Amino acid sequence: YPGILLLGDSHTEEGGFFEGGWGLRVAQHFTRMADVFNRGFCGYNARFVKHALPDILANLPGIDVAVVTLGSNDSAFPGEMLHVPITEFKESLISITKELLNHNSKVVLVTPPPILDDIWDAYCRKAYNGPKDRSNDHYQTYLSSIRDIPACCDGASLFDLYDVLWNHQDSKLEAFFKPDGLHLSKLGNEVFSNGLISHLEALFPLWKEKYAEYDFIDSNDLSSIFRNRQWNESKQGVDGKNAPIH
Known about the structure:
Number of strands: 5
Shape: globular
Oligomer: single chain
Structural class: alpha/beta
Strand content: 5-15%
Largest sheet: 5 strands, parallel
Distance between the termini: 26 Å
Strand order of the largest sheet: 2-1-3-4-5
Order of helices and strands: EHHEHEHEHHEHHH
């Protein structure tokens, strides 16, 4: 199967395989078409991921596309433990992107979601006894760096999650977030996954189910196992729900 690597921080780890998470929704959508590998690490920044990446790749089968979500922790205020200066952040993210491209993988760079400043500040004061460690304004230079990278890395593309959520017309911004104002709610994960799935389908339009569903297998012709549903429907003109079981 083709491989999809989800690489990043808590937005990837938390959204990976929890109920309603964007990574789980991606895995479900591409069932029987691709394998999804979650390598999301809460608290990681581009510096940490750059150092870990060679080992991550050495322990995975071939990867056809990597979805990289970094920048949320890097953009913490200077002096905070996870802060990475903007120049180092961009250099590290370019290095990560090029290493993935050198492994014959396409790369989708994802901008992190917005930060709800007041809600995140209140959460930090309650949970950590201190003010917020990052802000939406301070975020912007990091977002700009992410948006710039596809232009200098052939094979990389951008999925601008920040803009998707910020400009969404159907719901208030708060609806896309958990009570901490930083991580995505079930609705936020849904919007993220819907957009990302469309992006991946555009990159890989030929991905299909590799093996036929059981009700399309002819016991007298086991080569039918290797014909996907689309082939059978066009060849036989049958509805899978009503197809006989051979």
